[in-house]
Design goal:
By secondary structure, the chain is mainly beta. The chain has two domains: 1-31; 34-227, Sandwich (Immunoglobulin-like), CATH 2.60.40.420. 13% of the residues lie in helices and 33% in strands. The strands form four sheets. It has a seven-stranded mixed beta sheet with strand order 4-3-2-6-13-9-10, with no helix packed on it. The mean pLDDT is 93. Bound molecules: copper (II) ion. Residues 67, 145, 198, 200, 202, 220 line the site of copper (II) ion (CU).
Length: 228
Amino acid sequence: MGRSAKIAIVGCLLAIATGLAVFTAMAFVASTPPTVDFATGHRQGTPVNMEIQTVGTIGFGVHPSWVSYLTKAPDGSWVHTTLWDLPAHTTVNVTILQYDSGSPLRNQEIGQVTGVSADGRPGTMLLNGKPVSVVNSNVGNGVGHTFSAPSLGINVPLVGNSASANLCGTAPCTTRSPHNVIQFSFTTPGPGQYRWQCFVPCGLGYLYGNGGPMQTIGYMDGFLKVVA
Ligand SMILES: [Cu+2]
């Protein structure tokens, strides 16, 4: 093989390697969900009002069959993400629209409401307007997901809808579909990154239900990015 042929082959290999590196980097950047900003422009002493939803199937993107959370941005649009910038030492009033079905919990402990309050009562959420402190998932429609932030002591069980109802299959869901409204408040700590996630093994089709969406930021886990 002549010298110029060798140079051409090396050049080709180098071009392929560079292409792969760029492709991998782009795929990584593109797969990181956006962060919804509730911190910029926040007036100190006022609460942050936040609306999120849980769906049984996201219905679009690379994993259309996966369960997911979505977040309503301050401009009113629904964003497929679980990452939020929040101001420190601030009351956050959360409304969760739960569009998924549920099942009995394997661990009854996560049927308890902890680390949040409703109507000034600690350890309480409002389920369709009624105060609830613990959910017995063995009756009714069970629990579909939880909103849990272990380092903040937060756990909120999200009661399911009847699986035989005509449940929403493509997000963002609207309140025309069957849903439960869960409301609670908590106070953000000082600046830092605080993991939150669902603790129901809801990753259907994955080992023990704990793979897939349970392991993927933007679906069943995310971060409270608390800023000063
Ligand atoms: Cu879940």
